[in-house]
Amino acid sequence: MTDIIQSPTNTAVKELVKLRESPRRRRERQCFVVEGAQDLQTLIDANREVLEIYFNEDLVSTSSASRYFLHWQENPALTLRELGKEALLKASYRKTSDGVLGVVKSWDLSMPNTKMNKTDTPVLIFDEIEKPGNLGAILRTSEALGSGLLLLSEPKIDYFNPNVIRSSRGLMGKVKVRSGSKEEIYSWLQEQGLPCVATSSKAPQFSHRFTYDQDTAIIFGNEHTGLGDFWKQKVDNWVSLKMFGEASSLNLNVSVGCILSDYNRSVGKF
């Protein structure tokens, strides 16, 4: 390891801040920042390439990061650089820090050009999703409930946004995610022969009573405006969620959890 970087104005610290704040910088460098030992370890376990690990020894020694840190020190493939506390907190975006920041190489999210396999279903499509925290939570829910491939239809956010990473607890590196235009995604769905299901509060059939095909695509609209006209015209079946209160809709992540649970019951996973 090199000498401890003490100054918050050090070039390396400034670069960490740029990577945290700037989608453009992340695209230029083709990497992103991960804060927190557990999230970083999840990405390591998913075989994502870690370029550098920055740490503060005092913060690490008094946090849960210590249980991972020894293994990282013994791994010759990992480059570790020590920061002074003030320097690390300058680069940090959390109010409290466990003393670990990782720089991880980003990966290609372009649409696949091969036929899907059995582990790709159900395919979940998110049209023009715009809230990083929502997407991160959806990734956690999808991973927990055994979804297949997630397709981002013209997303309005950067997949490597720190809030996506934090809300997914690093699982954004494990879930299979691709991104493309509406036309690209729909063309791929047609090649796979997948029926499309979407939710609407006005749909007469409830999701928990609907018979889902195991190989199916489930489409979710934007958090504010719902499903756009392009996808509305592609839907084969509409389903609604049974609700008893006055709410007319649910948070997108909650809807995903409900629909995936219904799908799992329908195809016999539960």
Task: Furnish the topology, listing elements before pairings.
Layout: H1 11-21, H2 23-29, E1 31-35, H3 37-45, E2 50-55, H4 57-61, H5 66-73, E3 80-82, H6 85-91, E4 100-105, E5 123-127, H7 132-144, E6 150-153, H8 162-168, E7 177-180, H9 182-192, E8 196-199, E9 217-220, H10 229-232, E10 237-239, H11 252-266
Parallel strand pairs: 2-3, 5-6, 5-9, 6-7, 8-9, 8-10
Antiparallel strand pairs: 1-4, 2-4
> How is the CATH topology of the largest domain named?
Alpha/beta knot
Return residue spans where pLDDT drops below 50 for at least 5 consecutive residues.
none
Intertermini distance: 50 Å
Structural class: alpha/beta
Strand content: 15-25%
Estimated radius of gyration: 21 Å
| Order of neighbouring strands in the sheet with most strands | 7-6-5-9-8-10
DSSP strand tally: 10
CATH H level, superfamily name of the largest domain = SPOUT methyltransferase, trefoil knot domain
CATH class of the largest domain: Alpha Beta
Shape: elongated
Helix content class: 25-40%
Average pLDDT value? 94
Q: In this structure, how is the largest beta sheet organized? A: 6 strands, parallel
The number of helical runs is 11
Give me the strand/helix succession. Answer: HHEHEHHEHEEHEHEHEEHEH
